[in-house]
Design brief:
heterodimer, A: 455 residues, alpha/beta, Rossmann fold, Ubiquitin-like (UB roll), de novo design (two linked rop proteins), five-stranded mixed β-sheet, 38% helix, B: 163 residues, alpha+beta, Arc Repressor Mutant, subunit A, Glutaredoxin, 2 domains, four-stranded mixed β-sheet
Chain lengths: 455, 163
């Protein structure tokens, strides 16, 4: 089978791939200029909606559909917020897009703003991506100099400003309303939805929040057309009228116990096994995989050896599209950040790392999340020190089942993300946890790292 | 006696036209002050609030949400903040051992500043450098594939002699 020819990552190895000159030489911005001259904003919205593009930030909501939620004939201004907070652990594809091909992202922003009639885009970028920030600022400056940003762009009457806004180390700023609160200069406490940002968002105006990779896809969709986009990926399941399909190319990031941690672009739907074995160089050091996290920590874990129902295939063979991970009990595809855990690693240590993250990052607004993530961490911490109790596993699963927007007990989905790894790890690797408790094993990492830090 | 220089105040004011509400300049202002003064004191908060037509409590409210900012002269940041990532992908490739090594080498625990004021060591949650795990941030620049040996060289280049 021929290797897939990258589109989103086509330019990243070219010299000076981040500069305007090279981007234009490769046909960049011709799409935006043509849209300005020849297409109505509503047409661009319709095209993106019909393309089947689903958001790449983790939730997979149909992008064009979200754009249609904006109120018609609103006096405005309408805002676009670019979500470049990329903080889901083990995810780094947005960073690569921004560092290596920032103009592809910027053109997507321009097309999106033109479509939704927004004169201002706030590009919320996490503080830790300092190199990407500086590269983007330089790219934005190039655009202003070239008349691609600013007032009355190329005489079209369309005005657009793009402002970078740096975060300060908080995962919750990746939640769309957390991002908006942070942008507004407040504590990044997510808002209750509804109202959704499209109705009332930044500065109380209609706002669309889109992920960096989603916007890069917008560039390619408007440039190459819907037929191209739909030729890649997985069409909707005909038996499920609510399935929106998994079209297009996807950036998969591979990390953890592999020979080659790398970001690779493939049509949606590659299996976990193929991704790790063919593109990640396989499990490192000649070992075998025990568990894989298929889409960023919030999605939970896959048991590589667990057989699928009525099949000789295992959870290692699931397709990485929007439906695949859900079929084996994971929350979803998430950010498609695949992390491999080998068979010499303790799931207690892994779970401790996960619980530590969510407890630290809980914004604190909702009691079930603030307290629940804390409880889960303390219990797993005790387990890691060899002081686990028989009832711990049931308590952990009980807490994990109760906290979150899906059980209906919190304002945002961080708690769901905290709960899913806990319940999947314990349900799928229960024997290992029970052994650890029974034997009172103390992990070599059992000195707790200080919780107080700068994050 | 103003804590913020005229230059710093002008840099903060330059952000005002970007947003429809002045409060949105809070984070940019905190970053500007923190980068230069290595901490944000109560006096600085009062002056930021003045520039943004906010109550000082509002600025402090925002600042304290992000554990990113150091709030006192005593806790001020060293010349460089070295943060070692402790995300899952980095842990799987030796980050915890690396953190131990750095603490030992610098003679501080995470969150503390070396005696000569050159380095503040921190751990970081996933910094998105998993293709180069274990990874480290020097202020806001990624350094990938950091072995204990590479960390030692890094510290030397920052002027840090072994503890």
């Amino acid at each position: 089978m021929a290797d897939f020819e990258p589109v989103l990552l086509a330019r990243i190895n070219k010299p000076d791939s981040h500069r305007l000159e090279g981007y234009r030489a490769d046909g960049g911005y011709a799409t935006f200029e043509r849209a300005l001259k020849e297409r109505k904003p509503e047409e661009v919205v319709t095209q993106v909606k019909d393309s089947g593009l689903r958001g790449r930030g983790g939730a997979g909501f149909p992008t064009g559909l979200k754009w249609t939620f904006l109120p018609k004939d609103h006096p405005g201004p309408i805002y676009l917020c670019v979500n470049a907070d990329e903080s889901e652990p083990c995810t780094y594809n947005n960073r690569i897009l921004m560092e290596k091909d920032p103009h592809q992202v910027l053109e997507g922003i321009m097309l999106a703003c033109y479509a939704i009639k927004s004169p201002t885009a706030y590009f919320y970028i996490r503080y830790e991506y300092g190199d990407a920030y500086r590269i983007l600022q330089a790219a934005i400056d190039e655009c202003y100099s070239a008349g691609l940003l600013g007032t009355n762009i190329q005489g079209s009457g369309f005005n657009l400003d793009v402002f970078l806004h740096r975060g300060a180390g908080a995962y919750i700023c990746g939640e769309e309303t957390g991002l908006i609160e942070s942008l507004e200069g407040k504590r990044a406490w997510p808002r209750i939805k509804p109202p959704f940002p499209a109705i009332e968002g930044a500065f109380r105006k209609p706002t669309i929040v889109n992920n960096v990779e989603t916007l890069a896809c917008v560039t390619q969709i408007v440039r190459r057309g819907n037929d191209w986009f739909k030729s890649l990926g997985v069409p909707p399941d005909p038996k499920n009228p609510r399935d929106a399909g998994s079209y297009g190319p996807k950036l998969y990031t591979i990390a953890g116990h592999v020979e080659r941690p790398v970001c690779v672009e493939l049509p949606m739907g590659v299996t976990l096994r193929d991704l790790v074995e063919k593109h990640g160089g396989g499990v490192w050091k000649g070992r075998k995989a025990k568990s894989v996290n298929p889409g960023g920590l919030s999605m939970g874990f896959v048991d590589v050896n667990a057989k699928l129902k009525d099949s000789d295939l295992t959870e290692y063979d699931i397709p990485l599209d929007f439906n695949g991970p859900g079929k084996v009990g994971c929350l979803g595809l998430g950010t498609a950040a695949v992390t491999v855990i080998d068979d010499q690693t303790s799931m207690v240590d892994v779970l401790h790392n996960v619980c530590q993250f969510f407890s630290h990052e809980s914004c604190g607004q909702c009691t079930p999340c603030r307290e629940g993530t804390g409880w889960m961490l303390k219990i797993v911490d005790r387990m890691r020190r060899g002081l686990g109790r028989r009832e711990d596993l049931d308590i952990l699963v009980d807490v994990a089942d109760r906290i979150g927007i899906m059980p209906g007990t919190t304002i945002c989905g961080l708690a769901d993300g905290a709960g899913w790894p806990v319940k999947t790890a314990i349900r799928k690797f229960r024997a290992e946890f029970e052994d650890a408790i029974r034997q009172g094993e103390r992990s070599k990492y059992a000195k707790s790292l200080t919780v107080v830090g700068s994050h | 006696m103003s804590v913020l220089t005229e230059d710093l105040k002008n840099k903060i004011k330059a952000y005002l036209p970007r947003y429809p509400r002045k409060q949105a300049v809070t984070l940019p202002a905190l970053h500007l002050v923190h980068d230069e003064l290595r901490h944000v004191s109560s006096e600085a908060i009062v002056e930021i609030a003045e520039l943004l037509d906010l109550h000082p409590a509002e600025v402090q409210d925002t600042m304290t949400f992000y554990q990113f900012f150091k709030e006192t002269e005593q806790d001020r940041l060293g010349d460089t903040r070295v943060w070692v990532c402790r995300g899952l992908a980095c842990m799987l490739r030796g980050a915890y051992e690396l953190i131990d090594h750095c603490e030992h080498r610098l003679g501080v625990k995470c969150g503390e500043r070396t005696a000569d004021g050159k380095i503040t060591l921190e751990f970081a949650e996933c910094i998105g450098a998993c293709d180069g795990a274990p990874a480290v941030l020097l202020d806001d620049k990624h350094v990938m594939d950091v072995t204990p040996e590479k960390a030692d060289k890094l510290f030397e280049s920052l002027g840090e002699r072994p503890a």
